[in-house]
Amino acid sequence: MTLDLMKLARDKPGRDRSGLRAAVVEALRTVYDPELPVNIYDLGLVYQLRIDEAGAVEIHMTLTAPACPVAQSFPAQVAQRVEAVPGVSSARVELVWDPPWDASRMTEAARLELGLY
Fold it and tell me: Per-residue confidence at 1, pLDDT binned at 50, 70, 90?
């Protein structure tokens, strides 16, 4: 976890900061790209994840292509999944296009799943 995230990732009493961040990441791993059989976190679509002291989550993410047919509805789906995490008070998801996504952002697990090795 970066220093920035450690400073921002505060949680309600009863769960440590890294625990809430880990739970949010796990929730993000349950959301799959509509065109690829890989979750959005391991695809590298999540560029920024911040959690404030009140449990409000802010996510900057992208899609594999700007013309993705779910571009309008996908952020709400991601926010809904994150808001279901205990300790999260709200979630705001913003689509960003800079830097453009490319396959180098994927985790090793995602590359293996897609047969890119």
Answer: very low
Write the CATH number for 59: 3.30.300.130
- pLDDT, tens only, 23-69: 999 999 999 998 888 999 999 999 999 999 899 999 999 999 888 88
Range of the domain at 60: 3-113
Q: How many domains does the chain have?
A: 1
Contact (CB, 8 A) for 55 and 88: yes
Per DSSP, the residues of the chain read --HHHHHH----TTS-HHHHHHHHHHHHTT-B-SSSSSBTTTTT-EEEEEE-TT-EEEEEE--S-TT-TTTTTHHHHHHHHHHTSTT--EEEEEE--SSPP-GGGS-HHHHHHTT--
